[in-house]
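JOB MANIFEST
job_type = single_chain_structure
chain_count = 1
residues = 154
[input]
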Amino acid sequence: MNAIRSDKGITLIEVVIAIGVLAFGILSLMVLYTTGLKGFARSQALSEEIMYGSGLVEQLVSLPYNAADLSVGPNNFFIDSNNDGRLADELKDCVDSTSPPSGADHCQQYSSGSIYWNIIEDSPIPYTKRIQILITHKKSPAEVVLEYVKSYQL
């Protein structure tokens, strides 16, 4: 067997192909990195929403049954009226807690978004209040909905 061999080095076409493969690999890593950063930012926003929502649940649960923040308003459950998967489409940003937007009984702002909550009395059983909390974040399209049932203590 006689193999054709050249000791002259590599050809220009081999160099171009090697650079192309290297560039493709580097670009793939850059896309992977930016996608990871976006996912991290989204998860950070979601964690912040859950933290503020959980804090509000703890605050509302510790209030007396007839407290002002647990007052029943004209609204019931948050509804996705245009079926796009978002409940807060109709809700405007919470300007202040004394005048919540239409669709929410109560609202509160936090540093990165708004928290809305509705109180439904005698749901799911008499002498209970269902607290439905919707948390939105300015930087994330994700919404968090938390529900809690508070009972009347006899």
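[summary]
Residues 12-151 form one domain.
The first strand starts at residue 106 and ends at 110.
exit_status = 0
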